[in-house]
Design a protein that fits this description.
The protein is of the alpha/beta class and 259 residues long. The protein has one domain: NAD(P)-binding Rossmann-like Domain (Rossmann fold), CATH 3.40.50. Helices cover 47% and strands 15% of the residues. It has nine helices and seven strands; from the N terminus they run βαβαβαβαβααβαααβ. The chain has a seven-stranded parallel sheet with strand order 3-2-1-4-5-6-7, with helices on both faces. Helix 1 (23-34) links the parallel strand 1 (14-17) and strand 2 (39-44). The radius of gyration is 17 Å and the shape is globular. The model has no long low-confidence stretch (mean pLDDT 96). The protein binds NADP nicotinamide-adenine-dinucleotide phosphate (NAP). Residues 19, 21-25, 44-47, 71-73, 98-101, 122, 149, 151-152, 195, 197-198, 200-203 line the site of NADP nicotinamide-adenine-dinucleotide phosphate (NAP).
Amino acid sequence: MHVEDSLPELKGKTALVTGASRGIGAATAIALARHGVSRVVLHYGGYREGAERTLSLVEGAGAEGELMSGDLSTSQGIQAFVADVKTTVPEVDILINNAGSLVGRAKLDEFTEDLFDRVMNLNVKSVYFLCQAVTPHMLRVGSGIIVNLSSIAARNGGGPGATIYAAAKAAVSAITKGLAKELAPQGIRVNAVSPGTVDNHFHEVFSTKQALESMRASAPAGTLGTNEEVADTIIFLCTESSRYIHGQTIEVNGGMYMI
Ligand SMILES: NC(=O)c1ccc[n+]([C@@H]2O[C@H](COP(=O)([O-])OP(=O)(O)OC[C@H]3O[C@@H](n4cnc5c(N)ncnc54)[C@H](OP(=O)(O)O)[C@@H]3O)[C@@H](O)[C@H]2O)c1
């Protein structure tokens, strides 16, 4: 699929992309606009400058865009953002639950309850309750697309100090299957994309150059992933080409882990 192709099924649709200030979320928001989504609502955590950059590229691609912010690592932040979504953008046709993070690496003996809650809130609770927030409209119109971001960590238990992040991403894959079963009969498709190692801000923060090089060397494809490579798979899951795919977690990892 060529990235500039406008797809008729995306015309007139409203998409909400969480974590669109950078990385995979930004690439996905821009790709959705280029493929013909009419309105792209961009959520960000704290990086407003990045969100504004994504917004200008979304608008440059011909879509309407708007920014919304919210900290999704606390229950209060999730509740406030969910309430905001319900009032300001009640007609989401495509939800990309992308915001996520390791938050911090910590081994068992140093892991705190606060860190546990933040990892779970951001990567699991926000995903589930955003699905809950957008489905009334999808049920009314009898169609909708949800794509969640899992991780290779869900399959391999994660790198050092990332056990709870890995568990959170495994929960995302399970939620994807459960909601797909619940919602498929009403025309809503729920799937997930599971990146391997993407060479972006995430690993600038959480991995050393040596660790990244060893991950690259272990990938049969010989490269780390890019934001756009993950975004292309997300776009596929938003289109009619994937119409019979429900509840799947698609691995995008250059062959780093095969199942
Ligand atoms: N990079 C990888 O190799 C990789 C691998 C597997 C899975 N993933 C998953 O892919 C998704 C996108 O990650 P990425 O690689 O694009 O990472 P990234 O470049 O670090 O971007 C993460 C996005 O999530 C948002 N976010 C982080 N913490 C947040 C919080 N507390 N509240 C609200 N938003 C928050 C960030 O917003 P602000 O910057 O505005 O705060 C940012 O827009 C995540 O779910 C991640 O777990 C990534």
